[in-house]
Write a structure and sequence with these properties.
10 helices
Length: 188
């Protein structure tokens, strides 16, 4: 459990990276933090396979990490994605996040933003802040889901409440009223 908490901190740290203020660009995805994920790979792949088959979501997620990074097994991102999805089905919120990232960034599976959004939503529903953050990005951009600033703002606020400072800034930005065209300089 301590390792999962450490991974959560690393994932939320991605939310706290600086970006230029006033940018219309969506905040960076927490998927950029993959080094921490590698730390969660199975030290004993055979034992993880047995325990995953027996219904351990934690071991399925760790086994997925092993396949995603080729730690103790040949790298196989398609199988890693299947294992993440299986662990997600067993209500492992970080596995839902990772399954979403595999789909969003086409790691071993075809790019499928709608599927990624569904995985992020499950992660968020299971109280995983990084899942809420990634889903907020998708709503902000209208990627895989219809664009919805208000929903993006609410999701960023959930991640903010969990301690992600960058998400706080994005929540405020999404909830702010739009600047009228005559004030933003876009009119002649």
């Amino acid at each position: 459990m301590m390792l999962v908490s450490a991974l959560a901190c690393l994932l939320l740290a991605a939310c706290n990276r600086a970006r230029s203020s006033g940018s219309e660009e969506a905040a960076p995805s927490s998927s950029v933090i993959s080094l921490g994920v590698e730390l969660g790979a199975c030290p004993n792949v055979e034992a993880c396979e047995r325990e995953c088959d027996a219904g351990s979501a934690d071991r399925c997620r760790r086994l997925a990490m092993s396949y995603a990074f080729g730690k103790g097994v040949d790298k196989n991102e398609a199988h890693a994605t299947e294992l993440y999805a299986h662990a997600c089905d067993m209500r492992d919120p970080s596995a839902c996040l990772f399954a979403g990232q595999m789909s969003e960034f086409a790691h071993g599976v075809p790019k499928d933003d709608a599927k990624a959004a569904r995985f992020y939503e499950r992660s968020c529903d299971l109280q995983w802040a990084a899942g809420c953050y990634n889903l907020a990005i998708m709503y902000e951009r209208g990627t895989g889901v219809p664009a919805d600033r208000a929903k993006a703002g609410d999701l960023y606020q959930m991640a903010c409440t969990a301690g992600a400072k960058q998400a706080c800034d994005k929540a405020a930005e999404m909830h702010a009223p739009p600047t009228p065209p005559f004030l933003d300089g876009s009119l002649p």
